[in-house]
Write a structure and sequence with these properties.
It holds the Pfam family Disintegrin. This protein is mostly beta strands. The protein is about 0% helix and about 35% strand. A hairpin with a 4-residue loop joins strand 1 and strand 2. It is elongated, with a radius of gyration of 19 Å. The N and C termini lie far apart (about 40 Å).
């Protein structure tokens, strides 16, 4: 809800969140998320391991309690068209007059 920093319900057992105010506890940077540990935002920890040959692991940035979006291996190819497939398998294309990075997700 607007104004809330966290919401752990009325029977809150999360030490990072004040259930009365729905604000973070004193000294807490976060209350939940893949990159939140002991109420602090982590930096450099793997929050999502690689799942294939052309998937890259994601690391906590130190700026957010959430894991960043999925990254894929780049293959540098010359040409005017950039193509990549979304995690759902949809093909996306964009045009560039420079060398482009070709992102693919290994579907093996």
């Amino acid at each position: 809800e607007p104004g809330e920093e966290c919401d752990c319900g009325t029977e809150c057992k999360n030490p990072c969140c004040n259930a009365t105010t729905c604000k973070l506890s004193a000294g807490a940077q976060c209350a939940a998320g893949e990159c939140c540990h002991n109420c602090q935002v982590m930096t450099g920890s793997v929050c999502r391991p690689k799942t294939g040959d052309c998937d890259l692991p994601e690391y906590c940035t130190g700026f957010s309690a959430s894991c960043p979006p999925v990254n894929f291996c780049p293959l540098h190819l010359p040409g005017p068209t950039l193509e990549h497939r979304s995690p759902a398998g949809q093909l996306h294309r964009s045009v560039s007059s420079h060398h482009v990075t070709y992102w693919i997700r290994n579907q093996l």
